[in-house]
Write a structure and sequence with these properties.
Blueprint lengths: L1 H22 L41 E5 L6 E6 L3 H18 L4 H17 L1 H12 L3 H27 L2 E3 L8 E9 L2 E5 L5 H14 L3 E5 L5 H17 L7 E4 L3 H8 L4 E5 L2 H14 L3 E4 L4 E5 L5 H13 L9 E7 L3 H13 L2 E2 L15 H16 L3 E5 L1 E2 L14 E4 L16 E7 L2 H9 L3 E2 L1 E5 L3 H9 L5 E4 L16 E2 L2 E2 L4 H6 L2 E9 L21 H13 L3 H35 L1
Parallel strand pairs: 5-6, 5-8, 6-7, 8-9, 10-11, 10-18, 11-16, 12-14, 15-16, 18-19
Antiparallel strand pairs: 1-2, 3-4, 4-22, 9-21, 13-15, 17-20
Length: 603
């Protein structure tokens, strides 16, 4: 009893000490990042305040400039150079030089880098979210949830578990190599390239950068031509943090441009991460094949949102709205197909329609609006095209959001949340990625039917299944071919940063986030060495040494059976055969040695 009482007291004292240590503020340096040219103080220069009219044709590399504007009001923000192939190679070469130094850094130094970044993010949340809002049209609430919070979670996970998953990992040796020790080592790849879209400008830079740098790599990110203004500010945060830990700032870089810039990046790096459309993903693979570099592709999605009849309807409606309308279509894995059981179909449609009608759409920084602008006019036009096709095929609009005061010249940048019923899989709306705040709702009768409907898609990114029975929801989710599933929720997988993220089918392959994503930034090296060096080493038996004996194959078959036979008696019999053949070989060897000596004496 006294022993256990002592253990309890020591354990309690240890817990108290750990708690007291947690109360001591960590000594994390602060960094200064120049934001004078991105803060909207109302005193913009005339050339940065006029209404921008984007070209109606796709911008080409030869234009040499990436033009930036605010989607919510079309105000001009400035421009950045469209980098040439040679300029991209120079940036990658600089990152490679810096990576040679950074690869030798300790995990302690890498954790300090992450803490400095985390501290800056927490202290400057409003600035980060407002810049994202101005560049993409989303609300600052959506920017906080989808960007700031997700990146803070990733940093926290890396601080807690990153080193653990990058340390050498022991592996079993098996029967043939019992005298060996085996392990897997994770070494930096070199310079990683990333091409990211506009939907989450802050997150899409920091997500690949954090994993790549923590694994000892350099990284160059080609940011979207539709979100270059914000991206070129966000990189300052990372480079200021690198300088604070004594690392070369060129270790991480962003580049601006169009397709030629991206193609040059793919041709110059040691691995590519691409987030974007399926069509461009295929082109990335084709270019990457020329240098045989690994590729991670996170492409389109058409995620299913399945609602069984035994759910809490109010809860499900709340989740459905956040899953489909967040960031006015800026979601990379939003719900795009709603399948509702026929018994509650009408109730679900009524409830969600009532909520959608109350949603207001307008300039996110000009008032209290639930939803902002669509980032590009082309995207808004695509959404309307999908809706028109569905209407032509018999679908009906039952609810739309309400417009607030829209700036003159920017009306086409806004698309209200729209509820559509009487949809089916012949409509483009149910097959093509919409990437917008449209809620097409289709009824189903049985679980088997909804599984078939959910799998009737060329995409396979994620899904959400809702049921009052978790077992029923699991059973349905198990049958859906996709990369991630949320039970009685939607897309919360991404906030669990220990999990990998990615899809199947035309949603891509490879994973980022989690252990799998972190290790994907590494050369995975298998290492074997002697367990009891130098006393026991690998030595081939006489029948297998060159020149091999006449019975070499018979000997090898007996070795295989003795090692792997399913029956203990068969293994013992094979072992006896091995010993016999070794004995005969040794006797033959001695006999040949005697004859050889006799021949020498005769000579």
């Amino acid at each position: 009893m006294a022993f256990w009482w002592t253990v309890f007291v020591l354990g309690f004292a240890y817990a108290i000490c750990r708690f007291l240590v947690m109360l001591i503020p960590p000594n994390v340096p602060s960094i200064e990042v120049d934001a004078s040219d991105v803060v909207d103080d109302g005193n913009q220069a005339p050339e940065n305040s006029y209404i921008y009219i984007p070209p109606r044709v796709k911008t080409q590399q030869q234009d040499k400039k990436v033009q930036c504007y605010e989607p919510a009001n079309m105000k001009y923000l400035g421009f950045f150079p469209a980098l040439t192939r040679d300029e991209v190679k120079e940036r990658v070469a600089s990152a490679r030089k810096a990576q040679n130094e950074w690869a030798k850094s300790s995990f302690k130094q890498r954790r300090l880098l992450l803490r400095i970044i985390l501290k800056y993010i927490i202290e400057h949340q409003k600035l980060i979210c407002e810049i994202s809002s101005r560049d993409t049209g989303k609300t600052i609430v959506d920017a906080s949830i989808g960007e700031v919070m997700a990146i803070c979670e990733k940093i926290t996970w890396l601080l807690s578990e990153g080193e653990k998953w990058l340390k050498p990992e022991s592996r079993s040796c098996g029967r043939a190599t019992l005298h060996k020790k085996a392990r897997v080592e994770f070494h930096p790849l070199g310079v990683i390239g990333a091409i990211v879209p506009w939907n989450y400008p802050f997150h899409n830079i920091f997500n690949p950068v954090l994993a790549a740098v923590f694994a000892g790599n350099g990284i160059v990110v080609k940011i979207s031509e539709h979100a270059s203004w914000s991206g070129c500010f966000y990189i300052r945060i990372i480079q200021a943090a690198l300088a604070a830990v004594g690392a070369p700032e060129s270790l991480v870089d962003v580049i601006t441009g169009f397709s030629e810039t991206g193609e040059a990046l793919v041709s110059s790096v040691d691995k590519m991460i691409f987030i974007g459309s399926t069509g461009v993903g295929r082109m990335i693979m084709k270019t990457a094949a020329e240098t045989l570099i690994p590729v991670t592709l996170e492409l389109g999605g058409k995620d299913a949102f399945i609602v069984c009849e035994d759910v809490d309807l109010d809860h499900v409606v709340n989740v459905a709205l956040r899953a489909s309308i967040t960031s006015s279509g800026h979601n990379c894995n939003g719900a795009e197909r709603f399948y509702v059981h026929k018994n509650i179909y009408s109730s679900f449609v009524d409830k969600i329609s009532e909520r959608v009608k109350a949603i207001t759409v307008g300039p996110p920084l000009a008032g209290k609006y639930d939803m902002g602008a669509i980032c590009t006019q082309e995207q808004s036009e695509k959404l309307q095209s999908l809706v028109n096709d569905a209407l032509d095929r018999g679908a009906k609009i039952v609810a739309r959001g309400t417009f607030g005061h829209l700036p003159e010249g920017a009306v086409d940048q806004y698309f209200p949340p729209t509820v559509i019923v009487d949809v089916n899989h012949t409509m483009k709306l149910m097959q093509e990625e919409a990437f917008g705040p449209i809620l097409p709702i289709m009824k189903f009768s049985t679980d088997d039917e909804v599984v078939k409907l959910a799998n009737d898609s060329k995409f396979g990114l994620g899904c959400g299944v809702f049921s009052g029975s978790q077992q029923r929801a699991r059973t349905i989710a198990l049958q859906i071919r996709c990369g991630s599933v949320a039970i009685n929720d939607f897309a919360t997988n991404y906030f669990c940063q220990s999990l990998p993220f990615g899809g199947v089918k035309e949603s891509g392959f490879g994973r980022f986030s989690g252990v799998e994503g972190l290790r994907a930034c590494c050369i995975v090296k298998a290492v074997v060495e002697d367990r009891w060096w130098p006393y026991i080493q690998t030595k081939y038996p006489k029948p297998l040494t060159y020149p091999v004996a006449d019975n070499a194959f018979e000997f090898q078959m007996s070795v295989v059976e003795a090692t792997y036979g399913l029956n203990i008696w068969d293994r013992l019999r094979a072992l006896i055969n091995v010993m016999k053949m070794l004995s005969q070989e040794n006797t033959s060897g001695k006999h040949n040695s005697v004859i050889g000596d006799g021949d020498k004496k005769a000579d």
